[in-house]
Specification:
The complex is a heterodimer of chains A (110) and B (115). Chain A is mainly β and 110 residues long. Helices cover 0% and strands 56% of the residues of chain A. With 115 residues, chain B is mainly β. In chain B, a hairpin with a 3-residue loop joins strand 4 and strand 5. Classes of the chains: A mainly beta (110), B mainly beta (115).
Chain lengths: 110, 115
């Protein structure tokens, strides 16, 4: 079965600092990977997805992620954090159903 | 296009009751999946419906059931509610014919509280 693991349940960054959220995957076949964001009392919003077309994937709100097969990783980054980035972020792998990581809560300090 | 809609948004029930949640997918999407989100277990897959047939199922007891109508709208039902069923129930829709690379689009969820 395919799975993802998110390292770090909580990340705190200063406004303007780099945001780095870690996700590692386990899959015996080429994976399809996704990052979603969830704001309080809302559903999940797609940030970006990897479908093997390119290893560096750009998403919405300035986020991007790099697929590294050698490291089985799909880490999410944003060069400069904004207060509005405070939310919970989920990495997911699609195996005819989405399997999610445990999530990483991001807080942004002014 | 309108997004995925879920009704009701909030629900309070007591143990032993049953509940029905509704989901309307994005127009043109034929696949609807349901997920349960709790603080302890995180996001877990319940089941997926495509063209009125259950195509995939997670590891939940038979108290959890669903169906899909010819217009792709879906309902899920939970019978004999337990305290542990308190959760945010999320519905997601996708086209349904492009396999595992498809994007699932989520609704705002229904928050169920069981007392």
């Amino acid at each position: 079965a395919q799975s993802v693991t998110q390292l770090g349940s909580h990340v705190s960054v200063s406004e303007g600092a780099l945001v780095l959220l870690r996700c590692n995957y386990s899959s015996s076949v080429p994976p399809y990977l996704f990052w979603y964001v969830q704001y309080p009392n809302q559903g999940l919003q797609l940030l970006l997805k990897y479908t093997s077309a390119a290893t560096l994937v750009k998403g919405i709100n300035g986020f991007e992620a790099e697929f590294k097969k050698s490291e089985t990783s799909f880490h999410l980054t944003k060069p400069s954090a904004h207060m509005s980035d405070a939310a919970e972020y989920f990495c997911a792998i699609n195996d005819y159903k989405l399997s999610f990581g445990a999530g990483t809560t991001v807080t942004v300090r002014a | 296009k309108a997004g995925v809609t879920q009704t009701p948004r909030y629900l309070i029930k007591t143990r032993g009751q049953q509940v029905t949640l509704s989901c309307s997918p994005i127009s043109g999407h034929r696949s609807v999946s349901w997920y349960q989100q709790t603080p302890g277990q995180g996001l877990q897959f319940l089941f997926e419906y495509f063209s009125e047939t259950q195509r995939n199922k997670g590891n939940f007891p038979g108290r959890f059931s669903g169906r899909q109508f010819s217009n792709s709208r879906s309902e899920m039902n939970v019978s004999t509610l337990e305290l542990g069923d308190s959760a945010l129930y999320l519905c997601a829709s996708s086209i349904g014919t492009s396999g595992t690379q498809e994007t699932q689009y989520f609704g705002p969820g229904t928050r169920l509280l069981v007392l």
